[in-house]
Write a structure and sequence with these properties.
Layout: E1 10-14, H1 19-30, E2 34-41, H2 48-60, E3 64-69, H3 108-123, E4 127-129, H4 145-158, H5 160-164, E5 170-172, H6 180-189, E6 204-205, E7 213-214, H7 220-231
Helix pairs in contact: 1-2, 1-6, 6-7
Length: 241
């Protein structure tokens, strides 16, 4: 008599609808996790990324996909949540500055990870995946390894499992030391459909009745994404047609 199949471990994956989080989702699935995806409606400039996240979640066959409402626009301080602050544009990645840009949303990853931690506790998950990157990125302080390590240490103190000495939470950052080109290459190996993703900070309307948008092509996210695809010898599939 065959033994019953073991239940795969579950993990929480932060899913924005962008290139990095889509790759992170594919990696979690490839590592054998059943996935609870979590996205945020946080007062961002556009909601197209949430539509992309929904399509990616369905395609991946996640166990659940939560969209959490938080209004970070009430706090201000970022071009992504305050339309009176312009999104910086450039003509090449060489023009991207070294300072923390105005597209940084104060405390965003701290807040997102806190919600993801709560989802992990309620779903019995001991693994959490986030697609932060410390190489080809915009210089955000909450994408650095030191931040992730500190949050993981805090999470192990602040949870029921941590206090009771059960399996501690592990935060996985599989992209943190990869270039954008390496991230894309890994995603292509795993079959990620990058045409479903949107990375742009400031997408523009395509003009159709369906309200579709297209990347601006000149924000930091667009420039880094384009560079990554070109270094893989291909064009961005989200721009096809």
């Amino acid at each position: 008599m065959d033994s019953p199949a073991s239940t795969p471990p579950s993990a929480v994956v932060l899913l924005s609808g962008g290139l990095d989080s889509a790759t992170c989702l594919a990696i979690a699935k490839a590592e054998g996790f059943s996935v609870h995806a979590i996205s945020f409606r946080y007062g961002q400039r556009h909601l197209e990324e949430l539509r992309r996240a929904s399509r990616l979640a369905k395609q991946a066959g996640v166990v659940s996909h939560r969209v959490i409402d938080i209004d970070l626009g009430q706090l201000g301080g970022s071009a992504l949540t305050d339309e009176t602050i312009g999104v910086p544009k450039a003509d090449s990645v060489d023009q991207i500055g070294d300072e923390i840009p105005v597209t940084y949303v104060p405390a965003r990853n701290t807040i997102f990870l806190s919600y993801a931690l709560a989802v992990a506790e309620t779903t019995g998950s001991h693994d959490l995946f986030i697609g932060v990157n410390a190489l080809d990125y915009s210089g955000y302080p909450d994408c650095r390894p030191e931040f992730i390590e500190a949050f993981e240490a805090m999470a192990r103190l602040a949870t029921k499992d941590g206090v009771e000495g059960n399996q501690p939470l592990t935060i996985h950052t599989p992209l943190i030391d990869l270039t954008k080109a390496q991230i894309i290459a890994r995603g292509l190996e795993l079959g990620v459909d990058y045409s479903l993703t949107l990375s742009c900070y400031d997408p523009v309307p395509e003009g159709g009745a369906d309200g579709a948008v297209k990347p601006c092509g000149r924000c930091d996210a667009c420039l880094l994404r384009d560079k990554g695809f070109r270094e893989n010898g291909m064009s961005d599939p989200s721009l096809a047609g």
